[in-house]
Structures are given as C-alpha cells and as structure tokens.
Automatic annotation (TrEMBL):
Region (Disordered): 9-31
Domain of life: Bacteria
GO molecular function, one term: DNA binding
Record's protein name: Helix-turn-helix domain-containing protein
Signal peptide interval: none
Protein species of origin: Duganella callida
All copies of domain HTH cro/C1-type, residue ranges: 33-80
PROSITE patterns, alphabetized: HTH_CROC1
CDD domains (UniProt xref): HTH_XRE (cd00093)
C-alpha cells in the first residue's frame, strides 16, 4: 500500500509542469515535471524524506503534508481522495464541503417514503426528511436550531427524550457505541472526532463506560422499535448505505417493518 502511494506521488510529480507552481522552465531537465528537490521545497520537507516516501519506505506523511502535496500537484477531487485513501489518512478538508454535499442530496432524502437522514463521519445529521423529523423530533428539531449540527450520539446520550423514544435503550446504546468505534476506525484521533468523544465521555457516564469497553461491531440493519409520544409503538427495518463519492457520508433509512 505504501509503495502504491509513492508511485502515485511520483507519477503526478513528473507530470506537473514547473510553470504551474511558479518555477522557471529553462535549463536541462530529465523530466518535464517537477524535480524531487523542487517538490520537497514546495512542501517544506527534505528531499531525502520525499525520496523515502516515493520509494515506499516506512515514513508516515501527515494529513497536512498530504493536503499540501495535493495542492502543489493540482490533484482533482477524485485524485485527492485516492491519495488520502492510499496513505490511510483523514483529509483535513473532509468536513469542509459537507453542507455542499448534502444540498443536492436533500431532494433524494425527501423522496424516501419513511424516516431517512444523512450522517457524516462524526454522525452529525446533514440532511433529513419530514418523516425523520416527526420521529426524532427532540433530536432534529431542537438541536437543529443550535450552533452544532444535530448529532446522533449527543441525542442518544444527552437528550432525555431518547430513553423514552428508543425501545431497549440500553442494548441500542451499547450497539451504537460499538458501531461508532468501528465506523470511525483509524480516524478516531482526528481533532473533531477526538473532541466529540472527549465531550461525550465527560458529560455521559454511560457513554464513557461503553467507550472504554473497546467493543466493535458493524453497523448492521435490522429491526428498530420506538415508543413515540404521539404515534405510539412504531417498528422499522433500518438500512444504511455509504455514498459512492463520499465514503464518510451515510444514508440511513427506516423502512416499514
């Protein structure tokens, strides 16, 4: 995997015109693209370190450095995503366009005949339909007006309405934390995720206890039961889909059981 990363960086370095980054194009050049020393200087690393990276040696590029490489090499959105995927790093820019990504998807969520919502990597809700708002009123209606986006974990562990709404709350809370750990995987140290985990651990003894268990389980579908204050007992089959172009976004649908 690391060698694929080096090969990818080298191929794009060699096809990046010096003029595109403000360097002179005169003189003899063994490659029409950037020299390794030039790319290293532009990214504020040593040529030796960049050589090791291209050779697939055991070096660990940070997300910040990968972002700089993507900028200097003029990578497209797809190429940038591929770069971070090869490096197994979280793109520091991954949350910047969440709102923009959610905008065209709102129509899709609205077209679903049942509760549906879109979650990002932190499990913040980016979009939801009227059915979801009616079911999770305390989550989507109250927190949506706050400065923070509605967050599924905050609702589960901090909102009093969750315990009355969600049937078998203890079991669902256990599974939800285990699913969240599996979902974020190696990205748990990302500042935004780390801050969320720290805040929930400080504010909810239940979350802190479940998080320290280190349990992991896949985010599976299945029966979800609710005791709605107005509609009474409701049952749905949950289906979760990851988006093809944004793997950090999840579409959650609750279909009639």
């Amino acid at each position: 995997m690391q060698n694929k990363l080096g090969e990818f960086i080298r191929a794009h370095r060699e096809r990046t015109p010096p003029a595109s980054v403000g360097l002179p194009t005169g003189g003899r050049r063994r490659t029409p693209g950037l020299r390794r020393e030039e790319l290293a200087q532009l990214c504020d690393v040593s040529p030796t370190w960049l050589t090791w990276l291209e050779q697939g040696r055991d070096v660990a590029p940070s997300g910040k450095l990968l972002a700089r490489l993507a900028e200097v090499l003029h990578l497209s959105a797809a190429e940038r995503t591929y770069l971070f995927s090869l490096a197994e790093r979280l793109d520091p820019r991954h949350g910047d366009d969440s709102a923009a990504a959610a905008a065209p998807l709102q129509e899709m969520v609205d077209a679903i005949d049942g509760p549906a919502y879109l979650l990002d990597r932190q499990w913040d809700a980016l979009a939801w339909n009227v059915h979801a708002a009616a079911l999770f009123g305390g989550w989507l209606e109250v927190e949506a007006a706050a400065s923070d986006r509605p967050n599924l974990l905050r609702f589960m562990f901090r909102h009093p309405a969750a315990r009355g709404l969600i049937v078998d709350w203890d079991d669902r809370a256990h599974r939800l934390v285990a699913e969240f750990r599996a979902d974020i995987g190696r990205h748990a140290s990302d500042p935004a995720l780390a801050a969320l985990i720290a805040a929930l651990s400080a504010e909810s003894a239940e979350f802190a206890r479940l998080w320290t268990r280190q349990d992991v389980t896949s985010r599976e579908g299945g029966l979800r039961r609710f005791q709605h204050p107005r509609a009474g007992e409701l049952s749905f089959n949950q289906v979760t889909l990851h988006l093809a172009k944004r793997h950090d976004l999840k579409l959650v649908m609750l279909l009639p059981a």
